[in-house]
Design brief:
alpha/beta; 6-stranded mixed beta sheet
Length: 197
């Protein structure tokens, strides 16, 4: 019998590690990361990406995705540092109300003290993370790992030299992203635009 997981097979191990991590740093070029998605946003992403799934399958996938979301006020949850490309804010997933609520959710999370968010503006042009996405995870006693993903596949990287290169690229990207304060202003402005559509 095949073991079942609520996550895609290529992401299952990364999801386990994410739950154990002390820090999670992620660059997302196109969508709000699953860890930060609202139910309506997750449903729109899943329904669009998997149009032949039944309503029950979509509900199960949404529940699995939301199961990764933890209370950021809990001292056992990792500190999060996310860089979202401005395209994430400007791509209307699920319609105006869904986007407004999702973006407001991000600004609320930023107030927890365990979540730092930056936006990579279109004006930055090419940057160190322009060719992909990454999740970097650090642990109390184990070496750091990186997870890279593409359509229907992903790879967990634990080679120290490659993980270090991923970290350097991430650091270079966050150096040219908007400051957290400027990022919040841009997200709040985008949320208002969606709310008035």
């Amino acid at each position: 019998m095949v073991a079942r997981t609520r996550h895609a097979a290529h992401f299952a191990r990364a999801a386990e590690l994410e739950a154990q991590a002390e820090t999670v740093s992620q660059y997302a070029p196109t969508l709000v990361p699953g860890l930060l998605q609202t139910a309506d946003y997750a449903r729109a992403v899943i329904r669009t990406g998997q149009p032949f799934s039944s309503a029950a399958e979509v509900d199960d996938k949404v529940a699995a995705r939301l199961g990764r979301v933890r209370d950021l006020n809990n001292p056992t949850t990792p500190q999060l540092w996310m860089i979202l490309h401005e395209a994430v804010l400007r791509t209307p997933v699920g319609g105006g109300l869904v986007m407004a609520n999702q973006l407001r959710h991000l600004t609320a999370l930023a107030g927890t003290g365990k979540f730092l968010l930056q936006v990579m503006p279109f004006s930055a042009g090419a940057h160190a993370m322009a060719e992909g996405s990454v999740i970097l995870m650090t642990f109390a006693e184990d070496p750091p790992v990186a997870y890279v993903e593409s359509l229907h596949s992903g790879q967990l990287l634990d080679d120290p030299a490659i993980v270090a290169r991923c970290q350097r690229s991430y650091d270079a990207a966050r150096a040219v992203a908007l400051s957290p304060t400027a990022s919040m202003g841009l997200i709040e402005s985008a949320a208002e635009e969606y709310a008035h559509e």
